[in-house]
Write a structure and sequence with these properties.
single chain
């Protein structure tokens, strides 16, 4: 997620993963399915990283600082191009 989605083809991805394109399509029948799974994983990782700040024993200030730090870290790891490509090419 550090690059734009449109930059990669299924050929590029299969080569980088060291598998055939046919194998890649066996697991992800379409590019849309692959993008959906990547988005799901990004969302799950983000939600999981926010869970520590739901602890009722943490002061509101620490929660706020933790949440802000988490969001900043997420923004540093995920390219804005990723979200622009999603909006442009995968609006669903």
């Amino acid at each position: 997620t550090t690059q734009s989605i449109s930059r990669y083809t299924m050929d590029d991805l299969s080569t980088q993963m060291g598998i055939s394109k046919k194998t890649l399509y066996r697991f992800y029948p379409s590019r849309q399915e692959l993008v959906d799974q990547v988005c799901k994983r990004v969302a799950e990782e983000y939600e999981e990283s926010m869970k520590p700040w739901d602890d009722p024993g943490i002061s509101n200030l620490k929660k706020l600082l933790g949440l802000i730090s988490n969001v900043v870290g997420f923004c540093k790891r995920v390219s804005p191009d990723f979200f622009l490509d999603l909006r442009r090419h995968y609006p669903v």
